[in-house]
């Protein structure tokens, strides 16, 4: 459909000989919505017929001119105005005979698919309902379809907790739950990304010598010992080490005890 400002203008129904651009019922609904959008509900039948005729397209106008005049069936309560009569003539020409049971079967089988929003889902049963002749019960059947066959169990549980909600209320509730679920997923995703960054950051700044780190923490399976005195309570850089200024009786060097001396023999000095 083309748009004039914010108004959707239906396409020409039959601009050239052949097949119409869409099914008659759908096109007529689009045309009537167009009339409403331009505040034309109060237009005279003559003006409505003129608008209808203009959007039929060149080939559609030629077909219309060839159609017989519509005659009200016996027992009709009131005669049709010229707009209603024109619609009836076109309806008899283009309305497709549909099997109501087949239409309702298709309607009943339509379930919400994974990744499909509730708004996108509702649009499909609404189209399928056109061949079901639900009349004034259309919204009720669509509502039930949404409650029974929505993909999310959370949405379904929330809808089932309501007592006889309207289709409009069902849409509002379902959309609110969907938004909440989406926000929760985004929050969880952000939290997970933060945890990954934290682990990576800790790994990046971790000490290169794990034994030294374990010794500093006072834990680990093999803590290092001071190479000056042999104590495991501190390392060699500790200024309080008792061997720091002591002479080794084995190698005669200052700074460690003979017990930890690595010299192979006594110095001859």
From TrEMBL:
GO molecular function (one): zinc ion binding
Transmembrane stretches, start-end: none
Top-level taxon: Eukaryota
Gene3D superfamilies linked: Zinc finger, CCHC-type
The protein, known as: CCHC-type domain-containing protein
UniProt domain CCHC-type: residue ranges: 225-243, 247-263
